[in-house]
Write a structure and sequence with these properties.
Blueprint (H helix, E strand, L loop, with lengths): L13 E6 L5 E2 L2 E2 L3 H15 L3 E5 L10 H10 L3 E2 L6 H8 L6 E3 L14 H8 L4 E5 L9 H9 L2 E3 L1 H10 L10 E5 L4 H14 L2 E4 L1 H10 L25 E2 L3 E6 L2 E6 L8 E5 L1 H13 L2 E5 L11 H11 L4 E5 L1 H9 L8 E2 L4 H9 L3 H4 L3
Parallel strand pairs: 1-4, 1-7, 4-6, 5-6, 7-8, 9-10, 9-15, 10-11, 15-16, 16-17
Antiparallel strand pairs: 2-3, 12-13, 12-14
Helix pairs in contact: 4-5, 7-12, 9-10
């Protein structure tokens, strides 16, 4: 896979830079600019080399404008925005670019050709550029036109962040340092089960939290009340009793407006499991202290409604440990941004589903397309 340092002469070249600026927006405000900031080193490098940098990204499921994202980008680097993808307005904007200019095009998903992986859409995009660069690891698990077709139509390269993602996440399955602790939370058991099965062979311990814990408790025959559980049976009973799997002993449950710390054996039928409990945090601390590699994906509680206390406590333990710490998942990253601890970890992945797929399979469609 070629990187952008291998491009001999960038001056005057139109570079189609696929980024992922699919950032959380609430009430007209971008809540977290983490992914935008992570793309800046590549943007600045191309700009300094005299390239005409044309940024392409999606936002949401389509139908939304990137105008709010463009406003955030302008505060971070001199850039302009055109509310058009392939129309005359976009063509004029690209043609008027000077060396070193940065231009953001409108939301790719506003054209159906992006997600349907349409060849005509891809070829039309390709006409706007001379070179293609992928800096969108967090969506490289998608088989969209801008990710898997564009790199076949133009000379294609990997951006700095994409290289960092591959290098750092690979540490989890290529001769990992030991003791190796995997902390796994969040929901969507269907995407997490392949990881659990793979990393039972690779990791020394897997700590289960988040909504995933509810499925394990249910498989043990415990009451989970009104908590979120999967509709499917993923064969969890076969994993029960595995000494590598660490399960919390207590949880924080919500009953009306009241929060109660309970043993996992004492959850009531009308209670909702919000977070893991104080004893569980204390029990995990020695494993964190001994670990030389810690991989983390997903919050350990329902952080959107206040179940973020244990996650923040354990994040601080990991940050203060001597282990190599690799953090993945948009929700976890958002919590880290809130407590301003981004620089405390060895590596923070920009991906969510992409991180999970890469950890499970060792590659992604968008990465394969660059080779």
């Amino acid at each position: 896979m070629k990187n952008i340092r291998q491009i001999k002469n960038l001056k005057g070249k139109r570079v189609l830079l696929r980024v992922d600026f699919n950032v959380p927006i609430k009430d007209g405000v971008v809540e977290d600019d983490f992914r935008i900031r992570k793309a800046l080193p590549t943007i600045k490098y191309l700009k300094q080399k005299g390239a005409k940098v044309i940024l392409i990204t999606h936002l949401g499921k389509g139908g939304d404008s990137l105008d709010l994202v463009a406003d955030v980008l302008k505060k971070l680097i001199k850039s302009s925005f055109v509310a058009n993808i392939l129309g005359l307005e976009a063509e004029i904007a690209v043609n008027n670019m000077k060396d070193g200019d940065v231009l953001l095009l409108e939301n790719l998903r506003n054209d159906k050709g992006e997600q349907s992986c349409d060849k005509f859409f891809a070829s039309s995009l390709a006409k706007l550029g001379d070179v293609y660069v992928n800096e969108a690891f967090s969506v490289d698990h998608r088989e969209d036109a801008s990710l898997v077709l564009l790199p076949k139509l133009l000379p294609s390269y990997a951006g700095f962040q994409l290289e960092e993602e591959i290098k750092n996440l690979s540490k989890a399955f290529k001769k990992p340092k030991r003791p190796f602790l995997f902390i796994l939370g969040g929901a969507k058991f269907s995407t997490k089960m392949p990881l659990i099965k793979k990393y039972l062979k690779l990791a020394d311990y897997i700590f289960i939290g988040g909504a995933l814990l509810n499925d394990f408790l249910r498989a043990e025959g415990e009451e989970v009340g009104t908590s979120l559980v999967s509709d499917e049976n993923f064969g969890i009973k076969d994993l029960l009793g595995n000494k590598k799997i660490l399960l919390p002993e207590d949880v924080v449950v919500k009953y009306g407006s009241e929060l109660i710390n309970r043993s996992v054996r004492d959850v009531q039928h009308d209670e909702f499991i919000l977070d893991i409990g104080t004893k569980s945090v204390k029990n995990l601390a020695p494993f964190i202290k001994r670990a030389k590699l810690i991989l983390w994906n997903g919050p350990l509680g329902d952080y959107e409604i206040g179940g973020d206390v244990a996650t923040k406590k354990i994040l601080k333990l990991v940050a203060n440990s001597k282990a190599i710490s690799i953090i993945g998942g948009g929700d976890t990253n958002e919590i880290i941004s809130q407590i301003k601890m981004e620089k405390k970890f060895s590596f923070m992945s920009t991906g969510g589903g992409a991180t999970l797929d890469f950890l499970a399979n060792g590659t992604l469609p968008g990465i394969k397309a660059l080779k």
